[in-house]
Prior knowledge:
alpha+beta; single chain; DUF5642; Protein Transport Mog1p, Chain A; 2 domains; 9-stranded antiparallel beta sheet; DUF5642 domain-containing protein; 5 helices
Amino acid sequence: MLVPTTPASIKFRCIATLVVFPATTLDSKPGLWYQHAVRLFAVATVLLVCTLACGVACGLQPAPEPTPTSSGPQASRNVATVNPARIDRVRQDLPPGYEVVAIDPRATPVSLWGFGPDWRADPAACAALAAREVEPTRGWSASGPGGIVYAGVVKLGPGVPADRSEPRCEQWSVSGGHSVGTVTAVMAPPIDDAVTDGTSTAVTTVVEGGTETRSHADTFTADLVGGYHVFVSVVTDPGSPNPALDPAFAADLLVKSVSALRG
């Protein structure tokens, strides 16, 4: 019967052979000098073969793979076709009491935070990750007691970095007009065949008379196969007496939006 060869079985055979060969040398009858030499040569040969076998079987172990830390694309065998018109299906996941209208075709996540077209980023390289549209935005916005919800899908623009980890924009600032905001990277939900990203933005705006108003935005995005960029942004008023929609709602809505777009 054939027994599969494993590192453990090789090691066992080495030990067993080393025990048997010395036993044959302890003969009660005196042997000739060349018989002892042959036996010593056989033992040395077995030791060499066992050492090589154990070195091959036990020494070539695969190196452990590094633990992933980025929110890169999640692999999947099947990639569905994206239909931007399906973004409207996600409106049914809104809480009661929200009024829905079509989104501004020029809308981007940064504009939804309250910044005009002349906004600036610091570091400037982070602006490339925030401005990702090329075609008019398709989607909707909804206002209600918990804030304003935006959901949209656009085509990625030329020159947009394919690697979302470069540059590293863990925290950066955005400014424009009378508003300034601090953008902080947050964990985004994993989605099959998509690169996801999340930010938490605190915005301060100075109005007439020097009065400051504050707002907060939780934004989650997904880059899909085919050059589509999906975003969900929930803008809330920290001073509102009503409970605000939380980041988990925005993240979950992004997952549902991608699922709807793929059909």
